[in-house]
Amino acid sequence: MLEIFRDASYDFQGKRRVAFIISAILIVIGIIATVVRGGPNYSIDFTGGLQSVLRFETPVDQSDVRDAVHDLGYTDAEVKTITGRGQQDVMIRIPILTGHESVSDELQAGLQAHFADNPITVRSVETVGPKIGRELRNSAILAIVASMFFIVIYISWRFKYRYAIAALAALIHDVLIVFGLFSILNLQISLAVIAAFLTIVGYSLNDTIVVFDRVRENVRKLRTKGFQDQINISINETLSRTVLTSGTTFIVVFILYLFGGAVLHDFAFALMAGVIVGTYSSIFVASPILIEWANARPEKRSKKQF
After folding, report:
1. Which residues contact 159 (CB under 8 A, 6 or more apart)?
2. What are phi and psi of 229, to 5 degrees?
3. If exposure means fewest CB atoms within 10 Å of the residue's CB, which of 60, 106, 116, 213 is most exposed?
4. What is the four-CA torsion angle of 199, 204, 205, 207, rounded to 10 degrees?
5. Which residues have CB under 8 Å from 69's CB, separation 6+?
6. Mean pLDDT, residues 213-241 taken together
7. Which of 188, 175, 153, 212 is nearest to 262 (CA)?
8. 82: exposed, middle or buried (C-beta count within 10 Å: 0-12, 13-18, 19+)?
9. Which residues neighbour 7 within 8 Å (Cβ) at sequence distance 6 or greater?
């Protein structure tokens, strides 16, 4: 395997307290942003609403369509341009109020009147009721919680309970920070973003397990070393693998963000943030928690801890 860092000997765990403070600040800022904005900015996938995809005969500017939609009274509407195969469509998402079942027809008629010399074709219309939206939101939360529950069981079986708690703390840390970024930037939480969160959980877990596995080997091989040194050595030994994996993944997701179109922007952004935060947490969150646990209960620690 290609090694970027040969004979690396960085003292990552010596900086763990600083890392804890940085993580805490980021999480608190995210929570404050969420509270200030009145809660998460859910898309119509969870709140209910209408999504209409329209194609103009002559491509129009996204801002012009947004202004026209706002003039029709739909000030909460979300407008995005979808480009592909040489065609340009406009996706409009509108939260529907009770009694507005004919929003789609009103929207098309109003836009056609505004762009009188530019014929409009309806590509698709989807409606999500408020009840279905709430069910989807509950299912999304359940999916994240269930995934973390089974992760705890798996790591407890493969390693020990304390490693499952450390990994779980890192996963919660990752999701909270990415969620906080969405609140700070006022980005919408959609089903695609929830899928990105689940992907982040899996990616971060994979990186953490690689480090834990090396720690298990080194605890047996380096018995004369202290536990903090064993973890530092393990992280340094897997550093090249971590950087290569994270770097290549980030490049792919960044390309998706640049060229995937507006529909995939939030999804790709969540993945980009998740790759960075997940790599950080495997080094500065999961592993340090093991050290703090061992320091708090030194009498419990032995070579059989794995």
Report:
1. 212, 216, 306
2. -65, -40
3. 116
4. 130
5. 77, 79, 92, 94, 107, 111
6. 88
7. 188
8. middle
9. none
Percent helix / strand / coil, the chain, rounded to 5: 65, 10, 20
3-state secondary structure of 189: strand
Backbone angles phi, psi at 138, to 5 degrees: -65, -40
Question: Which two structure tokens, joined as six digits, stand for 282?
Answer: 């495997």
Over residues 7-38, the pLDDT tens digits come to 777 888 888 899 999 999 999 999 999 999 88
User: What is the 8-class DSSP label of residue 95?
Assistant: P
DSSP 8-state symbol, 204: H
Residue carrying the six token digits 């340094």: 236
Beta strands in 132-219 (DSSP E): none
CB 230 within 8 Å of CB 13:
no
Please tell me the pTM assigned to this model. Answer: 0.79
